[in-house]
Specification:
It is built from six helices and no strands. By secondary structure, the chain is mainly α. The protein is 74% helix and 0% strand.
Length: 184
């Protein structure tokens, strides 16, 4: 059961682990600030090969594996539901459309995730990200841009999500009985 307390604990634990992990990556820069700087005001973080490999595993390979596994489970559940809907002839066409939409949505989400994360880790793992070049800045921007793309993809694929966003943006969510709004 999801409760407010459990949600708060989970969010707090995620933030704590993130801060702890990033501080461990930055330990040398925090101990000796400016050690690797070539000029005044330069902010350079050097990550050694072992830390880079751990970073690749923790922040790329593990999340990619989890995302793919979860989306495959969701897709399998969607397939199961559409097969159950196929028992009636009228629902057969709707079931095929629903199955196709689920496949497209899941595929797009996974491909966008990989497209945003792969360039960063390719450059990082090969050591090309040691200096703030224009290419490196663009790759890091693309990495963070993925967080913006997820809600946009859901808004594009799901009308109930668009309606929920509209209720939030227009502040109708603050109206009495807004919890009874029908968005599906």
């Amino acid at each position: 059961e999801v409760t407010v307390g459990r949600a708060q604990l989970t969010v707090g634990l995620c933030w704590f682990c993130s801060v702890l992990y990033n501080c461990s990556l930055l330990r040398d820069s925090l101990r000796e600030p400016g050690k690797h700087s070539s000029c005044r005001g330069d902010c350079v973080v050097v990550v050694d090969v072992v830390s880079g490999a751990v970073d690749l595993l923790v922040t790329f390979l593990t999340p990619v594996s989890v995302v793919v596994a979860l989306y495959l489970r969701v897709f399998a559940a969607a397939l199961s539901q559409t097969r159950q809907m196929r028992s009636s002839r009228v629902a057969a066409t709707a079931a095929k459309r629903s199955e196709m939409k689920a496949a497209v949505t899941l595929g797009v989400v996974v491909v966008v995730f990989l497209a945003c994360f792969c360039p960063y880790f390719c450059m990082s793992f090969t050591g090309q990200g040691a200096y703030a070049t224009t290419a490196w800045i663009l790759v890091v921007w693309l990495l963070y841009f993925n967080s913006c793309l997820n809600p946009l993809m859901y808004a594009y694929f799901y009308p109930w999500f668009r309606k929920a966003i509209r209720l939030i943006v227009t502040l109708q969510i603050l109206q009495p009985d807004s919890c009874r709004a029908t968005i599906f």
